[in-house]
Each structure stands twice: as C-alpha cells, then as structure tokens.
Amino acid sequence: MYKRVRLKDTVEVPPQFLADVTPGLVQRLLQDKLEGRMDEDVGSVVSVTKVHDIGQGAVLPNRPGVYYDAEFDAVTFDPQMQEVVDGEVVEVVNFGAFVGIGPVDGLLHVSQISDEYLAFDEENQQLASRESNRTLGVGDSVRARIVTKSIDERNPRESKIGLTAKQVGLGKHGWLKEDREKRQPATESE
Predict the structure, then answer these.
(1) In sequence order, what DSSP letters do the residues of 45-64 get, joined into one string?
(2) Which of 15, 24, 61, 111 has the fewest CB atoms within 10 Å, counting from its CB?
C-alpha cells in the first residue's frame, strides 16, 4: 500500500528564487506540485521526502521561471487488489460504511460487512444487527480486503475502492477480539 519510490520530474523555479536553487527549495516546490496527486504507475504521492539530484536548468520562451529536472524519493499510496487493510470508519450511510484507508476512503457495502442483516440507525450514525446486537459506527477500527478499485488520476479523492469484511479474520476489530476469545479453550484451575 505505502511505498518509498525514486522518481524523476521537472519543477519550475520562480524568478525570485533563482539565486538560491537548493535541494530544500526544489523539495518544497515538488511537494506543492505533486503531493496529493495521482500517478498511474506509482499511485498517489503522499510526500516528497528527499531530493537526490537537480539537473541543469532550462529556460522556455515566454515563461518567467527556470525548469529543473530533479530525482527524488517519495512516499506513495497504491492500494492493491486483494490487499488486507486496516482503517477507521469515517462515515456511516444507509448502504454501508466509508473506511479511511490512507488518502482515500473505501466503501464497505452493507452486504459485505456481515452475514447478519444490518439496519441503518440514522440517529446514532451506525449499522446495527438485531441478531447479535453488534454495531458499526464512526470511529470504529475495521480490517477489510480490497475487492474493487477505480482510481481517478485527476481527482484522487473521487477514486472508488470497494472493501469486504465477510471472510474469517476480517471485520470490526472489537468483533474479531470477541471471536478470538470465544475460540480460546477455557483453562481449568485445580
């Protein structure tokens, strides 16, 4: 999901900064340009961490800045199909829960949360089961698996990631703990 990658890109240095083109300046300009943007090959750029090399500047006609090629390290977010992720429920709606799994939210559709029927409790902003009295609400930690993804490079926040929590070992962390405790054999003291 998160990766450190070495990338190359071109950055424009405005005229007022041309006297002091440093790795720190280039890093700040790259951060402004790239952070939060989506790249088809590496995913969403979360942070530019270190500039390794700054090439020779190039001037373009009718452009005030100077363009430098730079090689740098970046932290990226690239969710993979079938990857198991931990996240936090950020919103509950009548058709499921949105789970924050990094810079994007994934949808945990109500049909993919549990085998039990979950009703939407609008007043408490949660999904609730009448059978087991289990609830899923905002702030709950969840473990899920990515089953669909549609990445929008122009607007990463509009990317759509589908999640499931129906397999063994997936679901709300509290539910997983309860299930583990039920499976633990009771120890007898003599």
Answers:
(1) EEEEEEEEEE---EE-TT-S
(2) 61
